[in-house]
Structures are given as structure tokens and as C-alpha cells.
## 1
Amino acid sequence: MSNPPDQSIYYVPHNSWYPIGAALGIFCLVVGLGTLLNDLKAGTEPSHLLVYTGAIVLAVVLFVWFAKVVEENQQGLANAQLKRSYIWGMSWFIFSEVMFFAAFFGALFYARNLAVAWLGGEGAKAFTGEYLWPEFEAVWPVVNNPDPSVFENPGASMASPGIMNWGSYLPFWNTVILLTSSVTVHFAHTAIKAEARTKFVAWLAITVALAGVFLFLQVEEYVEAYQELGLTLSSGIYGSTFFLLTGFHGFHVTLGAFILLMQLVRASRGHFKAHDCFGFEAASWYWHFVDVVWAGLFIFVYVM
Amino acid sequence: MSDIILAGQDLDHDHDAHHEVVPDRGIARWLLTTNHKDIGTLYLWFSFIMLLIGGTMALVIRTELFEPGLQFIEPAFFNQMTTNHGLIMVFGAIMPAFVGLANWLVPMMVGAPDMALPRMNNLSFWILPLAFGLLISTLFMEGGGPNFGWTFYAPLSTTYAPDTVTYFILGIHMMGASSIMGSINIIATILNMRAPGMTLMKMPLFVWTWLITAYLLLAVMPVLAGLVTMMLFDIHFGTSFFNAAGGGDPVMFQHIFWFFGHPEVYIMILPAFGIISQIIPTFARKPLFGYDSMVYATASIAFLSFTVWAHHMFTVGMPLAGQLFFMYATLLIAVPTGVKVFNWVSTMWRGAMTFETPMLFAIAFVVLFTIGGFSGLMLAIAPADYQYHDTYFVVAHFHYVLVPGSLFSILAAVYYWLPKWCGRMYDESLGKLHFWLSFVGVNVTFFPQHFSGLAGMPRRIPDYALQFADFNMVSSIGAYVFGFSQLLFLYVVIKAIKSGEPATDRVWEGAHGLEWTLPSPAPYHTFTHPPRVTEIEAHS
């Protein structure tokens, strides 16, 4: 059995406990999360046990699962066709993530261009405005909510202060950082393609560091929004769209940075070759995707 | 479909005789399996159990509606029944059944050893029973289960929802994750695992329709995930996406929901089109008429499905331009659908037809699905829809496309491929009996609902005005006939598996395609080495 595996055979693992383990982990996590949220809402003593159990089980299973895939690749079990399956899989997973953000962008456009305008009495909806909240004026960002007694007005919005003032505008610097990190991860890619390992590891490490800076600045921004501007999740539609879009983006940045970090660990252990670096490539695609979403966010949430 | 054979008959057994992999014994086989046939079987049994649970809920509904007045259940529980019946049938019965068929058939039809990502395939399945376990368990929790209709419009599902809505939202997330992983797997399998010579335009139509369906799923399941996420935040974190007091809009919920929801109804019918396009040529003993136009029509329907969503909400207070756009776009879908019906009928035209059970279900599909399509055209006409909206006419319409449409195609598929799966034939007389009971039952149940709807009976009510009494009683009787005849189906399937006559490899005289070149039952692993597919007959 010491012969190299037959490259014409598509490797199909016989059976595996990883999927059922992951499914149970997800189930635990989901039930725990639902119970936790309901307890918090009802004001009863919340229990975190199930959430932690589920998260740990899921994390462990995913770690072992990915490690196994890496190991199988090193054993030569993954032939060229199987690697193409991974490429298709990752590409269309990213497409599904694009559609996830599309739902939030769609909500932003609808609320901003239609719902808010109609609440202000635009066009055929004159009586909507007159009947519901006659005081409400349709301007974006909405800093005066239709009914401030239900949804407290934010003190200010995060909108761009004009291009001349971007020097002191945090989201602008975050844009610079994230765009730069897309370039550095590309340099890492060209480096591994040239088998320049040291450069590869260095550029990858710089990318991860930039991701860390981005996340740090975003936390700063959120702290400022909550503590100084009074802009929260519950400050009406502006706060809702702002925090959901930037928040889920931040979550995806965290995930992407973690994936890149794992690739960095692998790289420092000598994994990856010019012709065999899909784990890294998938991570870098994901990183470019996260970057493009941020470009959309910067334009539509902050600037326009 | 072009006719294909294998060059050389070196199908399976010569290469891997020395490491023949056999399935594990007992429960471990089903929990740990990575085999597409095992996972297909799991999906199919799961969806059948869901069909029985969802069907029981339908019978609870029909029992309450047997006579006017409230007699058996509380209105609050009635709402939970309509909601969960819809959710379970859509996400638990129809969709997983198609995924199960894809698992069993796509690798065999394209000459692949298995699905492209076998372990993820197992994960896609096992998430589902857990998600539905969670959903169904909410019925027994304090405050009751989801009661806001399967379309879960805000603010019914946010401001006024029972606490269990949180589990509902997370359950939807799980089902969505399952669907996304499943469709990625199907796409990778079809695009990357085809045997040499199996070009795209030689693929069986079932494979084509599933490829397009998988893209629809990938495009809209994440939108559904985004939607329920916004609900979750509105409920638990104080956002105001669907609350006008904060500048949001409950109508926005409907737009996003139906942006998911309309492609979703094609997700539930496109694989059915594929199945029917496999079955009719077999029993008409003629190649499918207009293979290429079938592919293009399927793609057109999928594309158009993204441009018609607001026809579900004509009465919501939309601008006139919006109503006109969505009306005309919807009417346009009748064109590619008409192409399909024309092609099926033309395939049968002057064919040497026989009427085995799969063919009966397929012909019933063509006729009854077309009736459902026509009532869809009536609903698509915006001014007329003001009369039909939210009446039993809508209920009749979508049950005609989903029950004698999607469900009949699944039943047809099971009868058609069961001999290949288990190596044994079903009992033809019992199969035909099952067909006729289903056919009569389904029409007696749903045809009268057109009339009660046109006369103004609203949907989703536990009680109704006296003038609707007769039609409702007829409808309930039909529902019992249809519901209980599915137990006969269960018996026919089990009888075939246990003691059916051995099936031949080709099974049906007129069957074409790679799966029929395999032994019956299909061995645990097939096409470990890809077969070479050559063309012996051009399209005729």
C-alpha cells in the first residue's frame, strides 16, 4: 500500500464522523442561541452553557475536518479533478455570500429611496405622511425618526464630512487599510507562485496585521458611535442599516482574517507550493470579496 | 436527449475488485455515510416522513373546514397548522425530495463516482432533520409554534409573534445552510464530474434542470437568510427594518421575502420539469421533442423568476408602474413554460405509448400543472388579482402546481427509478391504483377551491360563511382520499423493496441514459473510473 495513490481515481472518503459532528454542533449552538436570546428578552437568568458547548464542538470538528483535508492533500489523495471541485465550491460559496449582502444592500436602497420618501409624503403617498407622522421630513441620513418616542433619534450619523475632511475621517482610513491589504495578499500570491517563501510569509503576515488594524479601528468607530454620537442599533432605520451592513461586514472580515491567519500558520510550517496552494488562494479570494463589499459600503453607507 | 452508449463495457468491476468498499452495518452507515446513494435514500425517506407530518396537518385543517363553525380546534392552533403545513411541505417535503433524487441520479447520469464533495453532502442532509426537529418542537412550547403563515409577513412575525419565532428564524438559517451546501455540491458535480464525452448539451434534462435550480438556490437562499436576520434584529436588538415608526417599512419585508419566494417556487418545479422530460420519452418510445429548446426554456424561466416577485403583492399599495411591470413580466413566463408543455405533448405525438404508473403520473402532471399555470396567468393580471388576492383561488392555484405538479413528479420519479435503486419492480396494479386514487383525490380536493375562492372565501380562516359549505365539504372528502392513498404508496414501495420481482438492468424498454447501463440494483459504488460516452445517434 506504499504506492502513490492512483491519480485517475477521484478520492471519495469511505465514511466520516465530521459532518454529523458539525451538524450536532450547529444544532447545539442554534438551540442555545435561541434560548439565550429569549431569556434575555424575557429578563430571566440566561444560560450560556449550550451556546459554548455548541461553539466548541463546531470549532473542534471544523478544525479536525480541515486538518484532515490538508493531510489527504499531502498524501496525494486529492487529484487535479478534486481540486477543481474545491475551486467550484469556494467560488459559488462566495457568490452566496454576495447574495447575503445583497439582501442588506437591497434593504438600504429600499428604505432610503422609497420607504423614507413615502413616509415623508412623496408622490401618491401624500396622505401616508399627513396621516401617520406629519412632522416627519424625509432626509437621509434619518436623524429625526418618524416616531422618536418609539425609536430614539441618533445624535448624529456616520455620513462623510466631505472629501476635504477625510484626513480625520476614520472610515476613509479603514478603506485605505483594506484596499492595501488586498494588494498585499496579492503580492503574497505572486510570491508563492514564484516559490519565494520568505516573501510569501511576510506579505501574508502584513495582510493579517492590516486586517487586525482594520478591526481595531472599526471597534473604535463603534465605541464612538454608541458612546459619543448616540447612534445605536435602535436609533431607527439609519442605525439599523448602518450597523447591520458594517457589522456583518466586520464579522466577515474577522472570519477572513482568521482564515488568512490559519494559512499563515500553515505557510510557516512549510505548506504550499507554487502549483499547490489552494487553501491560501481560497482565503485570498475570500479576502478580495470582503474588500469589494467594503468598497460598496464606503460608497453607499458612508459617502453618498 | 441525444442517445448515448458506453464505449467498451468496462463499467465498474474490473478496476476496483481488489478494494471493493462495502457499506457499514447498522445506524453508523447512515450517520457517517459519504455515499451519494445512501444520502439520496436518507433525503427521500426524510422527505416522505415530512410529507406525512405536513399531510396530517393538512387533514387537521380540512377537518376543521369540513363544516362551517368552529368545532375541533382553536383558531390560534389553526393558524399554527396552516403555517407549519406550508413550511414543512415546502422546505421539508418537496425540496429535500428533489435533492434526494439529485443525489441518487445526478452522479449516475453524468458518469461520476459520487458527488463532488461527499462529506459536505452528508452535512447538508443531517442539518435538515435537526432543523425540522427544532421547528416542530416549537408547537409544544409555551406560546405555541409559528402562527404567521408560511410567508411570515412582518409585523405578524416580528411585533406580534410568539417567542418561539426565535427558533423558527434559526431553523430557517439551518435549512438555508443545508440548501446552499447542497447546491454547491450539485453544481460542482455537474460542472466538474461529467464523464469524458458527456458535453453539456448531451446531459439528461433532469441534470440540466437541477443545475439551473442549484443556481436559483444559491442566489436566493442567502437573501432569505438576510431577511430572517433582519427579523431577528428587529425582535431582539431594537432595529426598525420593518417598523415605520423608525423609518422602516413592513412592505419592504414582502419585497425581500418574495425576491426569495418567487425563485423558490421555481426551485420546486424546475426539477419536476426535468423528471417529466426523462419519463415521457421513455414511455412514448421517442426522443424528447426539442431538447435544446427545453434547456433554453428552463434557463429563461429561471432568469425571469427574478423579475416577477411583486405579483404576490399587487394589493399592497404599489406604484402603478410597478404593477404594470410585474404583471407583464409575469405573463412573459407563460412563453417558455408553454414551450415546455408543447414539447412534452409533441414527444407523445404518434409515440408508441404505454401507460405504466410513472407515465400516468407524468401525463397527469402535464395536464394538471397546466391548469395550475393557467390559474397563475389569471392571478398575474393585476386588476383581476384585486378580486382573487388572499382567497382560496390562490390556494387552489398553488396547490395545483405543487401537488399534481411537484409532488406527482416526485412520485413518478420514485416509480420510474425505484427498480434501479432496489433492483426490484413495484406492483404495477397497486401503483396504478395509487395513481388513480391520487388523481381523483387531488382534483376533488383542489378544484372546488377555485370556485369558493372566486366567490370570495378568504384563505387562512378556520370558519367561513354558509354559502361556502358545500365546496368545503367536497374539498375535505377529497383531502382524506388523497391523504390516505399516500399510505398505499408507502405500502407499494416497501412491498417492492421487500419482495418485488427482480428488475432488469434496462428496466424500461424505452429507457435511455447512463443510469440504465448499470446493474439493478445499482452497486454501492458506480463509475469509479469514468465511462467514455460516445454518441451513436444524433438528435432526431
Note: Confidence is low (pLDDT under 50) at residues 1-18, 536-540 of chain B.
## 2
Amino acid sequence: MSGAEFVPISLPPLLIGIFAAVACALPGNFLLLRRQALIGDAISHVVLPGIVVAFLVTGVISTWPMMVGAAAAAIVAVVLIEAIRRLGRIEPGAAMGVVFTSMFAAGVLLLEQSDTSSVHLDVEHALYGNLESLIWLDATGWASLWDLDALAHLPPELPRMAITLVVVALFTTLFWRPLKLSTFDEGFARTLGLRTDLLGLALVIVAAVAAVAAFDAVGSIIVIAMFICPPAAARMMTNRLEHQVGWSVLFAVLSAVGGYVLAGYGPLWLGAQDAVSAAGMIATISGLILALTALFGPCRARSGAPQDA
Amino acid sequence: MTLELAAAKGQRMTQPAQSAHSPLSIRGLTVSYGQKPAVFSVDMTVPPGAMTAIIGPNGAGKSTLLKAALGIVKPLSGRVEVFGTPLAAQRSRVAYVPQRASIDWDFPARVIDVVLMGLYRQLGLLGRLRASHKAQAMDCLERVGMADFSERQIGQLSGGQQQRVFLARALAQDADLYLLDEPFAGVDAATEKAIIAVLKSLREDGKTVVAVHHDLATVRDYFDHVFLINTTRIAEGPVDEAFTAETLQAAYGGRLATAQVDQLARALG
Amino acid sequence: MIADALLLQLGYNATLVAIGATLLGLAAGAAGTFLFLRKRALVSDAISHATLPGVGLAFIVMVAMGGDGRNLLGLLAGSALSAWIGLLCLGWLVRRTRLAEDAAIGAVLSVFFGFGIVILTVIQTMSSGRQAGLESFLLGSTAGMLRADAAIIAIGGAIIVALIVLLRRPMTLVAFDADFAVAQGLPVARLDLAMMGLVMAVTVVGLKIVGLILIVALLIIPPVTARFWSERSDRVVLLSGLVGGLSGFVGAAVSASAPNLPTGPIIVLVSFAFFVASLLLAPGRGVLAEVLRHLRFRKRVHLRQGLLALAQGQPIYEPLTLRLLRRAGLARADGVATETGRARAAKALRDERRWQVVRGDQAYEAVAALYDGLRDIETVLTGDQIAEVDRVIGRPQGVPA
């Protein structure tokens, strides 16, 4: 494919997909090890009520209020889950199930009740986004990458996702040691004076930011799949956290590129005419990678409880 | 030291105030999970430079006492002082070895990674990990006889080896007060020997060691001081005075199995 | 209008939907309880999301065979098949790899759902697929439901309820204590399978009414709600079924009473209202009761500790202790005991010594186990026994001073 075709049509969605996948996979590693993998699931479900409320409050469909609304909904959900878990002494899975389904139901109801049918805000879009539509009309070829006028008209999702990725990566790097420590041995971390409660909350908020930004670009399925599948597959490859995170980034990128390409060109190769959902395909590829590592990964089995010698 | 509450407290209150602060002093500590106190109104004064065993029946609040002292669980009332000040100011002087079972050993980390965690307060958030830090960690592994295992994944170790790694991490903290939760639970004889040797060397360096301990038969061999607890403090003092048939009876009541009593009779001579 | 709806006055279809929703809620509440009691509530999330590829593939197959792709029975059969495959994947991941169940649930649900979306976009490009309306399975839709479809849902719900009634005893046993159930000779593996089968059946039947995203709510919220009201698992099953059934009925009725009130979300929100009320107000495990209990308990602890400190002439460190003592008229602001305070303190100390004797004496073993620092000794010993204990305290040799 020529640059004249690739740069405007394929490059932006490809990059957005990669950034979104990596931004979710990074915190996903810690969520996985903390047995909080499904927080990603919960967050991505409550994004819908968040943007609906933001729309009802501001009355406009614009990105920033909606992202703020979604992030606020994610934080409300996390706080509610924690409160219900502690106050009601309910296991975390069930507490999560209560909160995210109820909030999602409220979102759907609000959506039906409000007059949003005329604007582009619907459940399907929330669920699987529209990666393919994020094209860069002003680009004419590779040269456009140095053309400031053209760059000014990049799809806004691209710089937004890039900034999100930078924020997530910074958080992971900066708090690498405390995150690792408190994930492995929370009691010990607390004796060192670490505020493990705040750190846990910060991790979830960073995950929520990644989820909200990625959701805006690619819908909520990729979000759940990217939180869980690349880190889970990476866990099968290594017994070192540093390497696990590296593998998870690689798997996230592979899923994003492979999913986007297969969704766009797979049907053509098979003789069909239209592309299929790129978000869905990215999730599918990440699942295939997980399946492969679960079958053949060198560290796929549990080390198990040690025998007392 | 005696069972008599008032007398015991009176005696402690007359301790000279100008002497060095106790490494760990607890006053009126009550901790409860739900509606039953696990630890009720406990006072404790750990003597410096000695090895103290916390002893009591199952569910007597031994681990809870330790966790409350470290600020891991929040007490309902009472206060804890470490070297005469609140714990927050003295964190770097306290090392902790948690119960082995409280950890997910499937975590992706090598032995050396775990020991390096003990250097966190030295390294901080972004401090560079230098060769000297690694050497320090290896030295700690050497002391517990685990240097050959530094690259192993922690899940592949035996229970005793895991316990030694935890001790090495505590050594890396280079603290003045070592708090250990059941360090001998479920470990092999060689490990038990290795651990007690390390603890005794710590004492020789003037460090203070406090361990939750289960095996009544070894109390006399291993420890200088005992602290008997069963929800409340039962007795506290040097082993010769406070570790007696009477105090044990008071702590364990009817729960002291006959076999244990026989074993003890031998241990107590 | 709502009154009409609640009294089933809105026509044949709406009535059938209401009955179906009630039966579905009943079945979901009861079946979900077994899952909840086994601490696997979110497995239902994986099951429900895993139905999507099955729905799509069933549509494609039915069209390819020249039939109507929208045949509800066919779609439900497809969804059941793919949910089952999802469950097998989930079980395999947990057993054969190092993944914990929560991660395996998330992996299965997101990958199956993603694949399902791929299939749906394939269907959209098919000539017969434009009006397939399969998206309605995401959120459910009772608007314009065919009479036959409503009947299928009502009958399906009734069958599941009947199965649960039949299997409730052994399944309750397994949910409560699987090891004990094995010891009793119950086929636990098969009962677990039956439990998953029931949850799957609920999901499949519920797809059309509440949709695959919200059916999870019907499987989780009623059991969690019921758990606040009872400590007995058989009652939790029953209560949960009631909460689910009531939510289904009220939700369907309210939804039928006005436009723009989608059935699924309304049912979920009704059950959520039941949950919130229970969380706050349930007498045993509710938050309000818990807070009151904790405050009372904290007061007892502080008063008792304060009295013991007073009796032994120790300073009182905790401001709260001092405040409570003062309010009870037991101490003055400067921490000195009042007349009553001194008497109560002496009594507290004496009781503490009595307890020491009791706990050191094998004869009182059962009583000693009750010690928690707070219990009045009169509540566990008779007057004669206390006199006996006091004689021991009086004896000098028993307790060296």
C-alpha cells in the first residue's frame, strides 16, 4: 500500500489502537496480580452512565465533558464497590457485579429517557467504538507527518490517546517499586510506611483514565480485553515482573496491529467486501495469543504450594 | 513477675524513666475483629537487646498484637511507641517478617528481588539500584544460607527456604528491632537452626528480636524473655521467672494438652 | 397506568412478558444464589457475554439453511452452545494454567464478546442481515415482541423454576459446604455442572428481556440482597428467588406502563433498590445496625479499659475513654474517679482477677473460652461458683503476690 493511502486511512487508527492497548495493559499487569482483573470490566461498564450524565448536564456532545463524566463514574463505581464490600461484608466479585450492572442499567435508562437519539450517542458505539472511522483526511502521504497544517487536523483521539499512554507509563515507572512491593506483600509494604490504600486507589484511577480514553477511541470491549489478556498471556511467559510487563506490551501491540489488519483485510482475502469490527477483532486476537501462551508458554503452570521439606 | 495485674503494672511503672527507651512499648491496646476483642487492654514492654517470644494458644491474639504494633491493623484503643516515639518516625529501625502463608508465592519475582525489597527505604522511589545494593542483598542471602538460590522463582522454594528469604529481606532492612510472625511454623529442622543462629547473631549485635512462637519446648533454648498472652496479657518477663507451669496454665487453661504438659515438664526440668 | 400494569391490565402480550419476567427473576435469583454462595458470582458475567458469538453464528447458520435467521429458539440454542464453550474455556484456564478465576472470567468474557461483535458486523454486511436486530440481545427489548417469543420465555422460566425446586436440597448442600457434600456421597461435580447449566439457562432465557449485559444483575443482586436477611442458606435461596421474582414483575409492569422505559434496566434498578434498602436497614447484617453495634461495642471497650486503669491508678491516655467515663459520671475531667467510679473500678478489677482464676482452672474450661475482656462474670457463673473463685483469690498460695 502506498503512503498516500496508508498514512491518512490506516496509520491513525493503527496508532490509536496500539496506544490504547498498551495504556490498558500496563496497569492491567498489576490488577491481574492483585486479583482485581475485573476492575477493568466494571470500569468499562460504568463509562456509559458517565457520558450520558455528562451529556445531560452540559447539553452538548463534546469530548472533554464526557471524558470527565466517564472518569467520575469510574471513580464513583470503585468507591461504591469498596464501600459495599466493606459495609455489607460481601465478596469483591459480587460487590462489583451489583455496582456495575446497576450503574449500566441507570445509564441505559437515562439514555432512553433523554433526547439523545438525534445525536451520535448510542450503546453500540459505547460498546465497540469505531476505530476504523478515525482517519486523517488532511494527510496526503508520509510527508504529511512533517506538515504542521496537516498535523493540526489529526483525529483528536490520537494525541489524546498518546498523552494518556505517557501518563500511564509515567505512573508505572515512577511508582514501580511501591506498586511491586505492595502487590506482593501489602502488610510488609505498610510496615515500610507506604500508604498502600492510596496506592491501590491511584492504580485504579490510572486504570480508569486509560479505560476512559481508550473507550472514547475504541469502545469498551478492547478495554476489558487489553486489561486482562496481554498481562495474562505475559504471565505464562516469565517469572519476573519486569519481563512480564515487557511481554504484555509486546502482546498488546501485536493484538492491536494484528486485529486492525485482519479486520480490515481479512474479509477481502476471504472474498467478502466489507471490513468487520476492528475492536472486536483486536479482542479476538488478544484471546488467541492468550490461548497460545496458555498451551505452550514456558511458565504457564502454577508454581504451586511449596512442600514443607 | 507475677499474675497479679496491679503488682505487675506497679512494678513496671517504677522503671527508671531516664533509661533508654524500650524498643517497643504498648499501652492499653485493644484490637477487635467484629464484636469480640482479639487483644484486650494489653500492655507490653520489650526489653532492648534481647530475644522475646510472644506465646499463647491459637487465637490468643499473638499475630494481631504484632500487626497492631506495626500499624498493619488499626486498634480500637491504645498506643504504640517504638524507641520512645510513635512508629511513623522510626519505620527504618523496624524490620518485619510476616507469616509465610499470608503471601501469594506465585508472584513473578526471584529470590533476589524479594530481598531487594528490604532496601526500599534506602532506594526510595527512583534511586538507582547499584552493584553495592545487590552485594548487600547477596550478603543477606549468604547469612541465611540461600545465596545459591538468588535467581530462583520464589514459588519454587520449599517452605523453609521461603522463610529464610523473608528473613534475609528483614536483614536487608538493617533495623534495630526485628518482629517475626511465626518464623518457625512449618519449616524443616535445618532452616530452624539457620534462623535461630541468625537471630542470635542479631542479639549479639545489640538488636532486639520479638517473635511469635508456637513450640513451647524450645522457648527456653531460644529466648531470653517471654510475653504470655491470651486476649489479655498473662505474664511478661525473663524466661526463668515468667515461663512457669503456673503462667502457662493461666495462658492455656484447659487447652494445654497433656502431651504438651509432659513435653514442658521435661523442658522446664 | 402503573396500577393497570401491576394488575396485568395491559393486554395479552404485556401480561405474558410480565409473567415471563417474574418467572425469570425467580429462577435467576434462586440459581444465582448457588453461584454467590460458592463465591463465583461473576462467572455469570463470563457466561452471559459468551452467548453473543453463538447468537450471531446461529443466525448465519439458519440463514444459510434457508430459514428465518430470527427464529428465537434457534438463536437461544446457539447462545447456549457458545456459553457452554465459554464455560469450558474458563474451567480449563483455571485448572490448567496459573491464572486465577477472576482473570480467566475477564479473558473469556472480553474475547468471546469481541468475537461476537466481529460476527455481528459480518451479519450486517449480509443481505438478509440488515434487519436482523440482533443488537437487541445486548440490552434486551420487549417492544414488538412476538407472541410466540413471549410464550417461549414464560415456558422456559417455568421449566427452570421447576428444576430448581427439584434440585434445591443437594445444591444448597454443595453451595454451603462442598467437602461435606462429598463426604455425604453427593455427586458434587455433577451438581456443579447442573448449577452452571441452570445459570446458563437463565441467561439464555433472559437474553430477549433484559439482554446479556444486564442478566448478570439478576443473577447477582437478588442473592446479595437476600443474604442480608438470613444466615440460613435454604432461606437465602428462597428469599433471593422472591426478590428476583418481585423485581421482574414490578420492572416489567412499570416498563409496560409508559414509553421509553426499557424493561431490562428497570428490572435491574428495582432489584438494586431492594439491595440498597437491605444493605442499610437489614436487622442483622445491615449497615445501620452494624454501626450502632460498633459504637456500643467501642463504648464498652473504652469504659472497661478506663475503669481498669482507674482501679490501678494508671493515667488514661485516650481522650475518648475519659470523655465516656465523664459522661457516665465515673470520672472527673482531670481523670480522677468519682465515688461511683471508684466502686465500679474496684468491681471491674475484682472481676478481672476472678476471670484470671477461671481461665487458669481446667474445671472452668468451657466458661474460660467465653472471655473477651468485656463480659460480666455474673453472666457465666452462678453465685456459688463466684464465691468459690473468690475463696481462691483470697488464698495466698494460689497467686503469689
Note: The mean pLDDT of chain C is 86.
